[in-house]
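Aim 2 progress update. The chain analyzed this quarter is reproduced below.
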Amino acid sequence: MSSDDYTIIRKHPLGGFAAVKGFDSCEGMPEAKEGHHQYPTVQDALDAVAEDLYPPEYGVSIHPECSDHFARKTLDEMAQEVWEWAQSKGWEPNPARTFGDVCALLHSEVSEALEEFRTYHDTIGHYETYGEGGPFLWETTSANYGNSKPLGVPSEFADILIRLLHYAAAYGIDLEAEYEAKMAYNRNRPWKHGGKAL
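Predicted structure tokens:
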């Protein structure tokens, strides 16, 4: 097995989806061919890869062409999922954490996104590995589901969202309702309101 193999879920040419193996050392993204096994859903393809005796070294990603074919979650569902994850990892409950800690931790995630951008070629891309000759740029809109750590600005943006959802759940804040209320107000604000340069 190569040390730089990954699997990407793509649309199968005969319908459904395929789990296609590729290699970071090769140029271009592998195509799904008729000989690939067909799976009825994206999740079925992901499950098959997870059950593989030899999982891909660099994890699994979903090609953007498949992004409309897996279930989208509401912000409330995501907040609940993050809250349950935080409990399962021992981060909650945490009565010692202050609101100042919360704000500082949100700031830290934003700063990490800036550092990714400054350090790795000023590119808003999704980097999966930093090896010799790396980093290797993956599709900006790919979603990683493997055991290897997703890296890059998109991943750091996801961390910002995860932190925000975590603390919204901790404080009982309904982000969907607050979003709608704030956007309703914003639509009635004047052109470049506030007089700021940025």
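Residues 75-186 form a domain with the Helix Hairpins fold (CATH 1.10.287). The longest helix spans residues 99-119. These observations will guide the mutagenesis experiments scheduled for the next reporting period.
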